[in-house]
Amino acid sequence: MTLFRHATRIILVVVAWVSLVHPASAHTMGVSRGEYVVSGDVITATLLFRAEELRAATSEADLVSELAIDADGSPCKGVMVSTAPDAPDGIRIVARFSCSHRPTRLHVHAGFLARFPGGHAHVVAITVDGGAASEHLVVLARPDVDVDLAAPPSPGFIGFVLAGIEHILTGPDHLLFLLGLVLLPRDATTTNRERIKALVFVLTAFTVGHSVSLAIATLGGHAPSARIVEPMVALSVAYVGAENLWANAARLRRRWVITFPFGLVHGFAFASGLLLVGLPRKELPLALVGFNSGVEVGQLGVMSLVLPALFLLARKERAYDIVRLVLSVGVLVCGLVWFVQRVV
User: Fold this and answer.
1) Where among 119, 154, 189 does a domain terminate?
2) One domain for residues 150 and 166
3) pLDDT digit string (tens) for 66-109?
4) Are 102 and 122 in contact (CB under 8 A)?
5) Which residues form the domain of 50?
6) Same domain, 104 and 146
7) Rounded to whole angstroms, how far apart are CA atoms 55 and 286?
8) Which of 81, 207, 242, 273 is deepest in the core (most CB within 10 A)?
9) Which residues of 147-163 are buried (b: 16+ CB within 10 A; e: fewer)?
10) Residues 90 and 186 occupy one common structural domain
11) Rounded distance between C-alpha atoms, residue 185 and residue 162, angstroms
């Protein structure tokens, strides 16, 4: 009875917290792109956003007003030129910034990031007179780019690695899914080595799954609609929580069979953001490898903290069973609430 009361209290807290989570914090990667073309003393900024995400955050006019560009320390005056839909679900905004002189050093401050969810990333691609683009990636914690226009263009690989890491760390659905996967039951007939082996298979299958779908969608240029993928991601979270409550230890050790298709679903959710960025086709492989590498680094970092704690707790059988029950129910409830949010 005590176990039931504790579990009920924690579940109620989880439900209250998840019910406040706005659907915009879903797993889809929030990414926008800005192409900043320097020609003389004029900078033309072409901004590409997901239409739904932009409408939920701000207006086109306010977005341009919160984008600050300085030429060698002197502010450039910006005006919005046009806005138009961009297939499949984006919106393209063109703004022009007039500077007092032709810049040798450019500073871009993406102040509009404060209006978007914390995980949103903005790709800044700067070109001078039609030359090669210098790629940078800014987020809310680092909203500024300072570029020496005379220096060779810098690739955006590291930026995409950081974006992958930040996306994992700010994606509660993905983190809860990973947590649900590793909440295996105690089994007196299973050694720690066998448990670790089972976990490696489970996590590897998931990694392979989302890497495959991310590559197919990004390089192929198409991913299933977020309206389909996001509810499926939520259901995958709910499923692993539910399976932890009824499946036996032998079945859960073989759950890599289901983590591979779930990985495909999560990969398509990752891809929808990269597709919107509008990177030139030749840059997609590098961005794909960078982002996926960041995802894996983030996963490994989280698991390096979670798994030792679970193995340590497993030495106390009753305590581990209580924690496992409460966490599994919490994962189940979160997944169901997210599913309802994303469908409704």
Assistant:
1) 154
2) no
3) 999 999 999 999 999 999 988 667 899 999 999 999 999 999 99
4) no
5) 31-154
6) yes
7) 30
8) 273
9) bebeeebebbbebbbbb
10) no
11) 34
